[in-house]
Amino acid sequence: MEDFYTIQGEGFHQGSAAYFIRLGGCEVKCVWCDVKDSWDVNAHPNVSVLSIAAKAKASGGKIAVVTGGEPSMHDLSLLTQELKQVGLKTHIETSGAYVLTGNWDWICFSPKKFKAPHPSVPALANELKVVIFHKSDLAWAEQFAAQVSQDCQLYLQPEWSKENEILPIIIDYVKLNPRWRISLQAHKYMNIP
Ligand code: SF4
Which helix (H) or strand (E) holds 189? Predict the structure, then answer.
């Protein structure tokens, strides 16, 4: 769908320069999705993996973040192979809706209520990032915290349109449950993609 060099705004690598590769296609269809243009897989051109990897390398960035859409609906083996070939770390942002392919240095698993993750994904996660839209989502987040590895980083992130309402609830929750941390969408405060 698009690729661009920017700053990772969310989660463990927040603030780091990263080359974002947004793949078209998503069948998860979150009601609050902020990239609905990505949903139709046929609405976006086919682009060669080699050209994406070359642009990522030319950016000077050290990290490539593959996102979507829902990138796990694609076979990502060749893309990660080529990104590593040109010397970039491979990160993914995924709801885990499908069996994950590819060779990843960092897996950010962000489950969504609208399509259950594949059971193989939670154990692979380096980072669990749960978007909180309603207070009840906190209990739902704990279900996944129980499925990830001991060293997985845990983040709660307020859904952007409800941040004023939800952030105070998350702050109180993290103070009571300090193994979680708060992720804010810092790129939106910086007005960058
Ligand atoms: Fe949007 Fe991501 Fe949800 Fe797909 S999984 S609908 S791209 S927020």
Answer: helix 186-189
Over the stretch 76-125, which tens digit does the pLDDT of each residue have? 999 999 999 999 999 999 999 999 999 999 999 999 999 999 999 999 99
* Residues near ligand 1 (Cβ within 6 A): 26, 28-30, 33, 35, 38, 68-70, 95, 112
CA 40–ligand 1 middle distance (angstroms): 12
**Using CA atoms, how far apart are residues 167 and 178, in angstroms rounded to an integer?**
15
CA of 54 to the centre of ligand 1 (A): 27
Q: Positive or negative, the Cα torsion across 193, 156, 122, 107?
A: positive
Instruction: Determine which residue's CA is closest to atom 1 belonging to ligand 1.
Output: 33
CB 9 within 8 A of CB 190: yes
pLDDT in tens, 151-185: 999 999 999 999 999 999 999 999 999 999 999 99
Cα–ligand 1 centroid distance for 88 (angstroms)? 25
Sorted by where each starts, the structural domains of the chain and their CATH numbers stand as 2-189 (3.20.20.70)
Probe residue for ligand 1, chosen from 1, 2, 10, 29 as the CB with the greatest number of ligand atoms within 8 Å:
29
What is residue 158's predicted lDDT score, i.e. its pLDDT?
98
